[in-house]
Amino acid sequence: MFNAHSTEIITGPYGEREEHDRFRCNHCGAHKRLKPGETPEFTCKICMDFICGFCANRLMVDGCTPQEKYLEDMERAITRRLGWERNFREMGR
User: Fold this and answer.
1) Which is it for strands 31-34 and 42-44: parallel, antiparallel or unpaired?
2) I need a surface site. Which of 13, 22, 44, 47 has the fewest CB within 10 A?
C-alpha cells in the first residue's frame, strides 16, 4: 500500500475540487502528482524508494544516486575547496 507524501487539493473559482496525491522522487527531489489511490510507476531496486520517470531512465547510466548522497558529495567538495583556499592564503602571507 502506497502512502502519499502529501495531498494536494485544488479548488476552482466555481467550487469544483480536485484532489491529488503527491510523492517526492528519492533521486532528484522532484514532486510528482498522482491520482488518488494511484501508486508511483517506478521504484529504484537499489534504494527501494519511489523515483520519477526521468530518474528511472537515468538509472541504467548513472546508477542509484539518492538526493541525500548527492548533497553530501557537494558539501564535501565545497569543504575541500574552502580548506584549499584557506591554505593558499596562509602560504601567501
Assistant:
1) unpaired
2) 13
Strand partners, 21: 7, 34
**What does the block give as the cell for 66?**
539518492
Residue that has been written with the C-alpha cell 531512465 in this structure: 57
Domain boundaries, the chain: 6-92
CB-based burial label for 27 (10 Å; 0-12, 13-18, 19+): buried
Q: How far apart are CA 77 and CA 81, in angstroms?
A: 6
Grid cell listed for 61: 547510466
| DSSP for residue 42 | E
- Residue 1 confidence (pLDDT): 47
Q: Are strands 6-11 and 31-34 parallel, antiparallel or unpaired?
A: unpaired
0.70 cut: is pTM over it? no
Q: Per-block average pLDDT, block size 10, for the chain (93 residues)?
A: 72 90 88 84 89 89 86 89 76 66
| Calpha distance 51→28 (Å, rounded) | 8
